[in-house]
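[Discussion] Sanity-checking designs against the backbone

I'm trying to build intuition for which residues belong where. Below is a structure token string of 441 positions. I'd appreciate it if someone posts a full sequence so I can compare it with mine line by line.
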């Protein structure tokens, strides 16, 4: 919603908004643009002369501002619908969908276009370090958007991406997630089936050929051009040339293009391949796309190094990562393990997404965390299952963040190798980041 507000402001509108909590970096970004922010929800926050009220998908009945809008019959819409009708309708939309990797792949694609002089607009659910902001209008017909399958609003339970009118569509992967919204995998596939229905015949769907769920969706109907990356008889493939996947070769139509970049992990290599394929659809050569990858600086909270130094003579690095699904956790740890095969890895996890809090994937967590030497899990009051079932020789749980930090620092001090602390959460983790850095300093 912060990105939507930013785009509305760039279009010349007067913009104000409310949130339960306002905090940097989004609060400072919006304030610098002249967007008035209200902490907490109150009907008086809505200007009497507002032309439209854009309601985020976390807002439900009982919210005082929403009740005011409905009681007064004020004009309202969702963020996704407003984007589709006011910004995306006349643009060439390059949409990035899938369970994992949307933010990184969207950022990669936007940067490839930017580095090749195409000046795209974009809306991304993170802050790409090459740009320093999560959204912008751009100066061309091209618009890159992170296309989320989550529902649109309290009154519109369709996936948000159905409002985006994509002409180039990446489907990166497909797993069960968002258990608070979807009853099963079939319900998710239904939404992706509807998405394929709105891609024009002259558009392009770029699909991961290794994913059986994507194959099932495509089998139900695809009316556009179709290109596969990875898998048998694919149009785009990639082979790594070093263990941590920071070097690889892209294969397309008999051509081989080597790449060296600053990211690690097999999943990121695959994200890059999808982004290169999408950029190629609008005329960026593979060579030029690979040149941009070498300058890519990742995304905030995606394996972001937030501390490097020593603690009582022990070397350590601390990374912040958004991983909140067992598959993403496993892929992130695999990439780090390949980079530091002989060093100590401590995974620190907050099960914060609704799917994780409900325990939908609890049986997969121990295996996902298996590449870490030690795993520490925060058992918050919102976790609805017995998280202690994960306790093992190398897995500990705690219901208190300060206790978790105590255990973490003890693990660092007991190691005779450099420690790599990987903190994984899609939220604020009860302020653990700053508390830990304060202790280390």
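Best answer:
Here's mine. Compare freely.
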């Amino acid at each position: 919603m912060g990105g939507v507000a930013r785009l509305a402001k760039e279009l010349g509108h007067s913009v104000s908004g409310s949130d339960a909590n306002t905090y940097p970096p989004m609060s400072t970004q919006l304030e610098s643009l002249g967007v008035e922010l209200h902490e907490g929800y109150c009907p008086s926050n809505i200007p009497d002369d507002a032309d439209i009220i854009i309601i985020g998908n976390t807002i439900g009945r009982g919210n005082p501002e929403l009740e005011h809008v409905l009681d007064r019959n004020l004009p309202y819409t969702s963020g996704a619908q407003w984007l589709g009708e006011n910004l995306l309708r006349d643009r060439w939309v390059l949409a990035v969908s899938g369970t994992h990797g949307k933010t990184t792949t969207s950022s990669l694609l936007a940067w490839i276009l930017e580095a090749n002089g195409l000046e795209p607009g974009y809306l991304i659910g993170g802050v790409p370090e090459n740009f320093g902001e999560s959204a912008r209008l751009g100066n061309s017909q091209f618009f890159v958007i992170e296309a989320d399958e989550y529902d649109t609003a309290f009154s519109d339970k369709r996936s948000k991406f159905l409002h985006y009118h994509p002409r180039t569509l990446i489907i990166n992967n497909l797993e069960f997630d968002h258990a608070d919204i979807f009853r099963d995998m079939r319900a998710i596939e239904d939404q992706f089936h509807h998405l394929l229905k709105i891609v024009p015949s002259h558009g392009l769907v770029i699909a991961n050929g290794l994913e059986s769920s994507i194959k099932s969706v495509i089998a139900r109907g695809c009316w556009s051009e179709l290109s596969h990356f990875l898998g048998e008889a694919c149009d785009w493939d990639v082979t790594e040339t070093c263990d941590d996947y920071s070097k690889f070769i892209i294969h397309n139509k008999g051509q081989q293009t080597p790449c060296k970049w600053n990211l690690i992990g097999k999943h990121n290599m695959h994200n890059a391949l999808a982004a290169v394929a999408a950029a190629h659809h609008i005329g960026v050569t593979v060579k030029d796309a690979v040149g941009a990858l070498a300058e890519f600086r990742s995304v905030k909270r995606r394996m972001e190094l937030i501390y490097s130094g020593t603690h009582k003579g022990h070397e350590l690095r601390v990374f912040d990562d958004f991983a909140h699904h067992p598959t993403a956790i496993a892929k992130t740890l695999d990439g780090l393990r390949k980079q530091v095969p002989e060093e100590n890895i401590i995974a620190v996890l907050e099960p914060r997404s609704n799917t994780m809090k409900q325990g939908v994937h609890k049986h997969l967590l121990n295996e996902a965390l298996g590449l870490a030497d030690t795993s520490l899990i925060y058992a918050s009051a919102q976790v609805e299952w017995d998280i202690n079932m994960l306790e093992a020789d190398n897995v500990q749980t705690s219901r208190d963040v300060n206790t978790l930090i105590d255990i973490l620092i003890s693990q660092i001090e007991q190691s005779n190798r450099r420690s790599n602390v990987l903190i994984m959460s899609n939220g604020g983790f009860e302020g653990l980041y700053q508390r830990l850095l304060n202790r280390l300093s």
